[in-house]
Amino acid sequence: MLRKAAKQAVTRTASEASGTSNAVSHDVVSIRVSPHSYFIALLIGSFFSAFLFYLELDLPAVSLFMIAWIVVPFLAMNDHLVFDGRCLTRAGLLPSIWSRLNGNRRRLRIHDIEQVETQALRTIKRGGNVYYRYRTAIRGRGMMFAFASGGDEYRRMIRALLPLLPANALDSRSLDLRDHLTDPKEVLMKAEFEHIPSAEFLRSELRTSSSSPRTNTTPTGVDLERAEYLNKLGNELRISGYLHQAAEAFRRALVLVPGNGEIIYGLARCLFSIAGSERDQKIGRRAVAAFRLAQRDPRIDGETLARIGEALVHADRPTMAERVFRRVQDEFGGGFRAARGLAEIALRESKLAYVIHHFSAADRVSETPALRRWTRGEVEYFSNLNNDDEYLEMEIGRVEMLESLENLKRSSLRIALFGFPAIIVGILFDDPLVANIGWAISAIALLTWTGMNIGVKLLAPRIPYDLLESDDQN
Q1: One domain, residues 317 and 406
Q2: 99-127: pLDDT as tens digits
Q3: 33-37, 115-119, 312-316, 318-322: which has the minimum mean pLDDT?
Q4: Is residue 11 within 8 Å of residue 182, measured between CB atoms?
Q5: Mean pLDDT of 17-24
Q6: 361 and 376 within one domain
Q7: Given 161, 259, 285, 286, which is the most exposed site by the fewest CB atoms within 10 A?
C-alpha cells in the first residue's frame, strides 16, 4: 500500500509540474544571478591582498581582504533576478548603483524577450550518470540576463518564465527544460517504479542492444499511453543526466510503438549525449543513424523535423541538417526554426546573401513583435555586412581581435598558475628571490588576464553601423 501511495504521489507531482507549462504564473519568483563575476572578483582580491601582505603594506592589504571576503559576497548574495509574471528585473545593490550611473535599464518585459539560450556544462561524471549545470541567458532590447542551475530556485524560474514565451524564442535546450525539467530525486523514484536498472548495468547493454527495436504487433490504446509516459520519463532522465536509464526508457517505449519519430528523436539525442560524455564515436554514429531513422516516420510533424535539424547542426552534420530544413519548407510550408537553421548553416559557409534571405523568411513567419524585431535586426546587420566592404572589414577585425583576446586570456591564466608553485617554494624555503619571481609572474599575468576580460566584454557587441555612417559624414 505504501508503495502504491508513493507511486501515485510521484505521478501526481509530475502531472502538476507538467501542467504548469500551460498555466500563467503571477507569483513572484527570484533567483540569484550567476556568481561567476563575483567569484572572479573574490579570487583576484584575495590574491592581491596576499601580495600586499607580502610587501608589508598591511593597511591596504586588510582593506582589500575585507572588500574581497565581506563586500563581494554580500553583493553576490543580494544580486537577484526577480520575475513577477510580467517583467524580469535585475534587483540588488550593485545593479541599482550601476544602472543609475550609466542609465542602463534593469527591467525587461516578457513581451520584449527575443531569445532564450541555454548552455549545458558537464560538471561531474559518476559511473554512467552525468551531472549537468545549465546556464540560461535571456536577451531582449539590448539587455542580457543570465542565471544558472543549482537548486529549486532554477526550476521555479524555468517553470514560471519559459511557458509564457513563444516556442520559437527558445533554443532546443530551453525547450527541453520547459517541458521536462523536474526534481532529479522524483525522476529516479519514477525510474525505480518502472524497474529500470542502474546505469552501471545498462552501460554494457547499450553497446550490444539495438537502438531501434521493432515488432509486428499493432499498438493498442494502452500501449500508446504507456509509450507516451515512457517517452516523457526518458526525456526527464536525460535532462537530469541519467543518460543510460533514459536510453532504456526510450527503448521500452519503442517496443510498444515501433518507428515513432518523436521517441526515436529523444533516443538519438540521448545517444549523442552519451557519446559526448564517454567520447565514443561508435555511439555517436548510432545517434546520427537514429536521427535519420526518426525522419522516416510518416506521422512526423514539421516542428519535430525542425528540431531534428537543429540537433544535427549541434552534432556537426550541417549537410544532413540542411536537407531536413529543406524538407520542412517543401512539405510543411516552412517555419521559423527551419528558416533560422538554414540561416545559421549559410553563415557557416559565409554565404551572406543566403543568410539575409533566410532571416527575411523567418521574419515573415514570426508570430510576436519581439521575434520580428530580432529577425529584422539580423537582416539589417548582415545586409550591412554584405553591402559595405568597410563595415565588413571592421567586423572581421573585431572578431579576430576577440579571438586573440580569448587566447591571451587562456595563456595569461596558465602563466599565473605557473607562478604559484614558485611563490609557495620561495615562502617555505625562505628564498626571497624565488618568491619575488613567482609573485611578479602571477601578478602581471593576473593583471593581464583582467585586462583581457574587460577587452572581451567591450568587443563582444557588434559595431553599430550608425557609427560608421557618422564617421563618413564627418
Answers
A1: no
A2: 788 777 889 999 999 999 999 888 777 76
A3: 33-37
A4: no
A5: 42
A6: yes
A7: 285
Question: Do 257 and 164 have their domain in common?
Answer: no
* Number of Cα atoms under 13 Å in the Cβ half of residue 132: 23
* Residue-number span of the structural domain to which 406 is assigned: 390-473
Residue 282, in any domain of the structure: yes
Residues of the chain with pLDDT > 90, as a percent, come to 54
> What would the pLDDT profile of 242-288 be if each residue is shown by its tens digit?
998 999 999 999 999 988 999 999 999 999 988 888 888 888 899 99
Domain count, the chain: 3
- Is residue 283 one of the residues assigned to a domain? yes
Q: Are 446 and 44 contacting, i.e. CB atoms less than 8 angstroms apart?
A: yes
Q: Give every CB contact of residue 342 below 8 A, 6+ residues apart in sequence.
A: 322, 325, 326, 354, 358, 361
Residue 250 sits in the same domain as residue 171: no
Phi/psi of residue 104, each to 5°?
Answer: -75, 150
| Same-domain status, 15 and 160 | yes
Cβ 385 vs Cβ 398: under 8 Å: no
